[in-house]
Write a structure and sequence with these properties.
By secondary structure, the chain is an alpha/beta fold. The chain is 36% helix and 24% strand. The strands form two sheets. It has a nine-stranded mixed β-sheet with strand order 1-3-6-7-2-8-11-9-10, with helices on both faces. The chain has a two-stranded antiparallel ribbon with strand order 4-5. The C terminus is likely disordered.
């Protein structure tokens, strides 16, 4: 008797998209929650529509609520006029889940014919600055960020952000990583503002970052619990030269 097919480790449930060859931006919780904060602000400022979610047996058993309504913890949003898709997570992704999740995500990005993929994360330093560091999967993408970011010469990107970039490199998909400099693990909206400024510059967007800066203290307070969860999920890496990198 034939056995029933096992349920996939990762499920992406998404309604048909209106965007053609979209720019895909992803932000998962990592150091400083830079990716999460940046993507949430983009969603709000652009009035993006919730179009889907990602589920996995790797994810913790929980529900996310906004104004009393249950949402999935990893969600997909679309701004069809601007041809932009945003993937955002309210849960840290455990390293053991990163491989399967990144493969499923990149498969999906190929299926929607994504033009470029942007992975946003944080990088912890002790400089007290708020620079944006960049890396890319090919020379063409590197040219786009060369004069707009600090190109990271030596280092690693851990976690889901690094896994997605590696998968894009293997599949020869144009992708870049933007890492906002932050002094530590606490939520850092100021680092997210700098990443937004770089995104505006590279892709000729007009996302207003002033509101995010004005709400910095409130965001830091609201996201402190998620930042604590990230600390227990991610293991810090020693710097090879000047800076460590995180997903």
């Amino acid at each position: 008797m034939a056995s029933e097919p096992s349920e996939p480790f990762v499920k992406i449930i998404c309604e048909p998209l209106k965007s053609k060859n979209p720019l895909v931006i992803e932000g998962f919780p990592g150091i400083g929650l830079v990716g999460n904060i940046t993507c949430q602000h983009i969603i709000e400022e652009m009035g993006m529509k919730y179009v889907g979610s990602i589920d996995s047996r790797y994810f913790p058993p929980l529900a996310v609520l906004f104004n009393g309504i249950v949402y999935m913890p990893v969600r997909i949003y679309e701004a069809p006029k601007e041809n932009i898709i945003v993937i955002i997570s309210d849960i840290p992704i455990h390293p053991t889940a990163s491989y399967d999740l990144s493969k499923a995500l990149v498969d999906w990005m190929i299926s929607i014919k994504a033009k470029n993929i942007i992975s946003i994360a944080g990088i912890a330093t002790t400089t007290g600055l708020r620079r944006v560091f960049g890396g890319a999967t090919d020379q063409e993408m590197l040219k786009k960020i060369k004069d707009k970011t600090e190109i990271f010469q030596v280092g690693t990107i851990s976690g889901i952000s690094g896994s997605i970039l590696t998968e894009c490199f293997i599949r020869k998909i144009p992708a870049m990583g933007l890492l906002g400099e932050t002094p530590g693990p606490n939520p850092d909206p100021r680092a997210a503002v700098e990443v937004l400024n770089v995104l505006n510059n590279i892709f000729d967007l007009s996302i207003n970052a002033e509101k995010l800066m004005n709400q910095a203290e409130q965001i830091e307070l609201e996201l402190s619990k998620l930042a604590e969860q990230v600390k227990t999920t991610e293991s810090p890496m020693m710097p090879k030269k000047e800076f460590p990198m995180y997903g």
